[in-house]
Amino acid sequence: MTRAQTIIDRFEMFAPRSLAVPGDPIGWQLGDPNQDVKKILVTLDVRPEVVAEAKQLGAEMIFAHHPAMFRPAKNMVLTDPQTQMYADILRANIAVYAAHTNLDSVAGGMNDWLAQALHLTQIVPFIDEGEEAGMGRIGQLVHPMPLADLIQTVKNTYHLKGLRVVANDLQREIKRVAILGGDGGKFYLDAKAAGADVYITGDVYYHTGHDMLAADMPVIDPGHHIEQIMKQHVTDLLNQWAVENDWSVEAAPSQLSTDPYQFF
Q1: Do residues 217 and 231 both lie within one domain?
Q2: pTM (predicted TM-score)
Q3: Is 53 a member of any domain?
Q4: 12 in a labelled binding site
Q5: Beta bridge partners of 36
Q6: Gene3D superfamilies per the record (predicted)?
Q7: Structurally, how many domains does the chain consist of?
Q8: CB 181 within 8 A of CB 226
Q9: Residue 261 lies inside a defined structural domain of this protein
Q10: Is 225 annotated as a binding residue?
Q11: Residues 137 and 197 in one domain
């Protein structure tokens, strides 16, 4: 049998906790890190439907990107759906671990996966300063293309039904692309300073969109959920380490979409 903590010790060799933004509530969220694990469910978000999926799978552990307890619980009254979910996790003896901004920043992690999915080349970090230094990625398109074509490529690559675009000219030629998964709107000037022709990030704030237009920095907002790309990649890493270390452990990606938005 393999302890949950043994698995995470190996993961944190890959994505050390020191890479996380200070105050980011990464790490163990719920359950017993010392319990034995045979099956792991890998998910972007920990939601009630994901917990039900884990129980159906027989998973003793959930590995998530977004912390399940991003904000501390104010009480443990089970009439609150979020608190009820915590109780369900504990009753099922499931250990929950989250790797957030450390997975975003690490070489070969979230933002490299997002950039590689677009077949960018010469990929390097583009944020040089502050707590988020080293988090985003910038790279070259294999073939330059108009922004309008890149928008369609982004939709196809990340399997999107819709996205938002902030741009003055959809026919502008794009060669160099910056990308940051999640909520990265405040870094558009970093992307511009790094020489990006376009910046891809999620959750762009309305007034920030006006600032992007004024700065003539085209931005594609595919939403936050494109980070689900981590499910298969983390699953592959965990299964690779299981083979290398002779663990009787199997990881599987969640088959559920936890995107709260629908497009009509």
Answers
A1: no
A2: 0.96
A3: yes
A4: no
A5: 3
A6: NIF3 (NGG1p interacting factor 3)-like
A7: 2
A8: yes
A9: no
A10: no
A11: yes
